[in-house]
């Protein structure tokens, strides 16, 4: 601080002393998880460093597994290894349920490796109110080089074209989906450091008496026979997202 002035003053420039970096930057520099998109307040995160996989399987087919692994972590020493079923179009994935947060604009983010013979990678959001279900899916297709989302009619639509998704060991992509359950609309989707505006695009809704809760998940789909594996790391669930 400048001599004889309080440390919160902005009256004079600091010539030889400098102000503190903001706390989000400080956190990122000490290997904090949120290094991709810092908007929103974290509700829950998983760095897959524990001894138990705190997720339920979201896959299909014979041979589908989801396990903790030290093979190709993004940050730390562990990640989650996902293996699809042994047939073309079989899935691998993870899902986790939460109580509904008090705010309506929510985000989910995950980092993943793109692998040969797996062509679709998808974030999944479902919210049950007790009378209605809201479903929002979005992701990337490495065969068609497109981003996609699940529309109000229950069909997949193209969000963006000519999108590249590099296939390689230890090469992690990150994607994030933000939705507003108070309006029933998508808000935005992030992939490869680009943000895609989805304002006004409605989610899929339906009649459902299931208990109030939020489901978050990730799913990948095989494009060839044989069980195929990829890795995910750094799942982040946020509220008050913009």
Describe the structure.
The chain has 242 residues and is mainly β. The protein has a single domain (37-239), classed as Jelly Rolls (Sandwich). It is built from one helix and 16 strands. The longest helix has 7 residues, at 23-29. The two termini are 34 Å apart. The model is unreliable at 14-18 (pLDDT under 50).
Question: What key attributes describe this structure?
Answer:
242 residues, eight-stranded antiparallel β-sheet, single chain, 1 helix, Jelly Rolls, mainly beta, 16 strands
Task: List the topology elements.
Blueprint: H1 23-29, E1 41-46, E2 56-57, E3 65-69, E4 79-83, E5 91-98, E6 105-113, E7 118-128, E8 132-141, E9 146-150, E10 156-160, E11 172-180, E12 185-191, E13 194-197, E14 204-207, E15 213-222, E16 229-239
Antiparallel strand pairs: 1-16, 2-5, 3-4, 4-16, 5-15, 6-11, 6-16, 7-8, 7-15, 8-9, 8-14, 9-10, 11-12, 12-13
- Unreliable sequence segments: 14-18
Order of helices and strands: HEEEEEEEEEEEEEEEE
Distance between the termini: 34 Å
- Tell me the domain tally: 1
The major pleated sheet works out as: 8 strands, antiparallel
In what range is the share of β-strand residues?
A: over 45%
Mean pLDDT: 88
Summarize the structure.
The protein is an all-beta fold. The protein is 3% helix and 46% strand. It has one domain (37-239): Jelly Rolls, CATH 2.60.120.200.
């Amino acid at each position: 601080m400048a001599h004889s002035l309080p440390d919160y003053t902005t009256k004079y420039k600091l010539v030889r002393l400098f102000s503190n970096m903001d706390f989000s930057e400080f956190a990122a520099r000490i290997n904090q998880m949120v290094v991709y998109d810092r908007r929103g307040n974290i509700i829950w995160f998983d760095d897959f460093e524990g001894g138990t996989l705190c997720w339920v399987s979201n896959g299909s087919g014979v041979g589908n597994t989801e396990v903790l692994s030290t093979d190709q972590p993004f940050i730390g020493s562990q990640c989650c290894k996902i293996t699809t079923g042994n047939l073309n179009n079989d899935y691998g994935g993870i899902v986790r349920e939460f109580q509904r947060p008090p705010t309506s604009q929510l985000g989910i983010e995950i980092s993943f490796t793109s692998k040969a013979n797996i062509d679709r990678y998808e974030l999944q959001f479902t919210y049950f109110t007790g009378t209605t279900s809201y479903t929002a899916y979005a992701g990337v297709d490495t065969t068609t080089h497109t981003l996609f989302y699940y529309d109000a009619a229950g069909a997949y639509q193209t969000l963006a074209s000519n999108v590249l998704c590099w296939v390689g060991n230890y090469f992690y992509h990150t994607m994030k989906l933000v939705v507003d359950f108070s309006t029933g609309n998508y808000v935005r989707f992030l992939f490869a450091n680009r943000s895609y505006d989805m304002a006004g695009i409605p989610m899929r809704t339906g009649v459902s008496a299931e208990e109030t809760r939020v489901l978050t998940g990730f799913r990948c789909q095989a494009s060839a026979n044989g069980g195929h594996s990829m890795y995910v790391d750094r799942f982040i669930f946020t509220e008050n997202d913009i």
